[in-house]
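Title: Prediction job returns without error message
Component: structure pipeline
Severity: low
Priority: P3
Assignee: unassigned

Description:
Job completed but the reporter wants confirmation the result is attached to the right record. Sequence as submitted:
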Amino acid sequence: MENVTISKGKVRDTTTIVSLGMLAYRIFPDTACVNIQLLNGNQEECTIPLKNGEVFMLRGVKLCLDVKE
């Protein structure tokens, strides 16, 4: 399982996961959710609760959300 680290202070940003490539994320503060989108190859996305430790999958890879203040 790999960690996806996002900053709660940045509403939109990108990060890189070694096995998947570049991801973009957007935080929706009003619903306490984050939308995460793969940017390379066939785009894939998911919207999950903005909660530290939330586990989700993209392209069959299990990921864990790491939210930094």
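Comment from assignee: result matches the submitted record. The two ends are 22 Å apart (CA to CA).
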